[in-house]
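fyi for ur records
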Amino acid sequence: MPAKRVRSEPETAETVVAGGGGPATRLEFARRTMIVAAVGLMTYALAAAFERASDVFFTFFLSVLLALLIRGLSDGLGRLTGVGLPWSFALVVGSFALVAVGGMAILGTTVAAQVSQLSGNLPASVDTVRAGTSAKQSIAND
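which gave:
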């Protein structure tokens, strides 16, 4: 017994969108393509914005970590000594400042000497790099 042929109505964009199955019309294909392109473009723009703002995010993150460190040290110092939070905070920040100033006093002369040596050697190093680059370019051109 031969199979019966069932005649169906032609599909339109409305039946495809409503889940009627079957091939999508050109209009529906174009709409879906534009949606995918818009999502891709928005993703790229968001990634580019995060890349540009990464320094700001990193600085913000480090400032929060430093604030948590100072607060934790201040709370611990306050519990150990019995002084209030403002005084323990001042002691922690003051000790950080003393350590920074002491580090600069101890290492300052060494760093200054290295900067002076670098500023003397830098022009010759730049000339050497430029000469090497132009020699490689001339070899590549031959």
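The chain has four helices and no strands. thats all i got for now
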